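Input record (one chain):
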Amino acid sequence: MAKKRPQTKAKQPQLKDGEIPVVGAREPCPCGSGRRYKACHGRVAAHAVTELVQRPFEGLPSEGDWVALRELVPAATVELKLKESLPEGVPSVTLATVLPMAWPALRRDDGSVLIGLQNDTASGDISRDLADTLQRALTAQPGTPIQGRRAPADGPRLQELLDPEGAFEPVVHSGFEFWVPDAEHSTPEVAASLERANAAAIPTVKLSGVDAAYWCETPDKNHLRWVMPYPEEQLLDALARLHAAGRSSLGEGTRLVGSFRAHGLTVPVWDLPTGVTADDVEKPAAEFAERLATALASDAPLTPGERRARGGLTNRQVTLS
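The corresponding structure, as predicted from the sequence alone:
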């Protein structure tokens, strides 16, 4: 038998990092190293899309409202304005807290686009994942739901697609009827999803006098959850000063009970008596905002009582994301 000729591999040109295309994980890396892509430049790409971005909505208009709609508000919509003109056949783009069947996005029959905010995301950068979903929805066929996927590591973020001067004005809904223009003719699956979602929605109202503050009603008591844009340490010091001085409440029977940490921002939470409505806390919230501004401006060392108050607030802090 004839001897087999030894196999020789053609030497591949060495490419620069910026020139490496994405290939299958088990394919040879295009850089010419001889290793599989997943063990070479694919490792860098994977790290880029899994690295956690602590403040994914930083730089967007109304960052606090983005956080609130992502973590706190059951049913709300916001019309989004893009930097570029909308493609032909797309009359509008609307951000929604949740979509039917937990779809990441939906291109409606009329061509309009709905983007879901509260979905799980595949990478550590919610902004990049949402931008990828938005771009795919803009070119999808009308009547098509958009499925989730991992966004490309070099894909744009929302900050690159949305108009930085565009208003971000959430409309809070009592239910999810905004899902379907004609609920009577929706599919059985969507109708069932709508019924379940409405049954689980907690009544929520956005305050009009201060930014990113949301009242909600629960069976035992009501709450005010207020997403604040200040650095966490500075904010906790200011809250501690007010708490120690007995000036952290929003009126009789109300109490500052702690805070959430969500997407790089701090969200103080007040317990409210059952009978206290959103309208009832509008004026107290505005007055508290003035007291807080004064406390934030102070750089005096915390007193022993203020340090104890700060410790109590810190112990009751919960991280959502």
